[in-house]
Amino acid sequence: MPQRKPASPGLLAAQAARRVAVAALYWGPVIFLLATAVLVVGLWKGANLGGLMYLAVVLLAVFGVASGWTLQRRLGEISGALDRAQRTSTVGLLTAGFAHEMKNALTVILGFAELARTSGEKARTDAKVMRHLREVENETRRTVAQLQSFMSYSSGERGARIPRDVNELVRDALSMVRPMARMKELQLQEVSGEPPRVVCDPFAVRQLLLNLLLNALDFARTRIQVTTRAVDGQAEVLVADDGPGVPPKDRDRIFQRFVTTRPGGNGLGLSTSREIAQAHGGQLSLVETDSGATFAVRLPAAR
Hints:
Strand order of the largest sheet: 2-4-5-7-6
Largest sheet: 5 strands, mixed
Helix content: 55-70%
Oligomer: single chain
Order of helices and strands: HHHEHEEHEEHEE
């Protein structure tokens, strides 16, 4: 049974504001009608119910002030969430434009790399030089393909889903972060099991894994371990680091949009990753551990 998509802080604030407005809409008239009924009964019976009327007026005033204050606070939260969403949208557009320009430039570089390789083959250039030229050509071609996938994904196009080896997807993601891990003197440990193949959008799942690895790079002290295995007929990937871990108060919030525990973070990595996992019929969760942080991705096996 698919899990419900976590609500964003902006949506939660909107729902809270709606509840307050509905309460004010219904309970305000109810208190007013009760006070009126008490007044009519008092006049009819000749009783002095001024104290009760005063209490009703006080209750209405307190309820109105509390409702107004709560609505103002919730509307402020909604405004902040919309502002962050607007900034994120702008950054997304700029990133997509930058990716387009990079793709064009790399396509030109790829053309010259292919030309250099073919010219080197005709001239029987040194084998070592030819190996380097082939590496430049292959890496450039791979980067161009990834940029194309990114532009398709950012435009909302659903990528083709094909059967893929989970270990291969993990190795692709690890290859992207190895240079950063070396700069931070972190060990990247890969424990490859035998997970089943999965039907997925390779770019999206690679992005999911990359988000988890980049998150681990920010918090790990000495090492990051990525484990793949089969669990209950599904493919599971564990990304663990030996950092400080996730504080208990944040464990239920970290998958919400714009919620981050990292200085300078935008709070989109984990929420986007969970959405990708759920779009593939899987799930992303934080595993309870004694130390560090461990995230588990589960994806259904290909049929």
